[in-house]
Amino acid sequence: MTAFSVLGQPLDEAYIKRMIKQGYQMIFTSVQIPEEDDETKYHYFTKLLNLLKHEQVTYLIDANPSILTPSFYEHLRQYDAQFMIRIDHSTSIEAIEAIMAQGLKCCLNASIISRELLTSLHQQLNDFTLLSFCHNYYPRPDTGLSVDLVNKKNELIYQFNPKAQIYGFIVGSGLRGPLHKGLPTIEATRHSHPVVAAKLLQETGVSEVLVGDSLIEMRQAKQLIDFCKHRHFTLCIGRSV
Prior knowledge:
This protein has helices spanning 13-22, 38-51, 70-76, 93-100, 115-124, 147-160, 194-203, 218-230, and strands at residues 2-5, 26-30, 58-63, 82-87, 105-109, 131-134, 166-170, 208-211. It is α/β, with parallel strands linked by helices.
């Protein structure tokens, strides 16, 4: 599955609709908002859900376990969509089981996953295969992960579940602020064409590609999804005058 991000900016409804029309069926978003009342906390996310309420979309939601309250889950149940909850901090058996008890898939941070945690989860969870994994993105240049590290983390995950879903980020066209330096998982792809970046991610074992930035140019979006779905894409050859 190929996904794009909707993060921290006014909704570009036309862009989001175009991406869905291109065949993108997953959106990465976040509800990690500073302590606010529920009405404010869910307003931005709710606008996105309402915009796409008639579309078949899966949401990968970055969230702190502290906001995963009964009211949050009740909010999700109002929509006919698929939801996955990614928890980064405060990862525990209890937090994961609480998410799964709601009938939702839980997604863990693949960039910092350890053998100890995976072993513990494999032994204690009723269904380990309901876990998926998502690497971090790195806004600051020279802080992204190496190819070798991503490869090793993915190999470790596959030892516990050979069919695991592992997500990784590539850079878009409209670079997200405040640094505007791209949001890749692998540092070597920070200035790469999306298809080149996606291919490198896949070579490390990443199975699902996410566009980290808030915008990807439509021609590149089409090339990327064609590559990820069909292993081919169309090149545009310009002619100098």
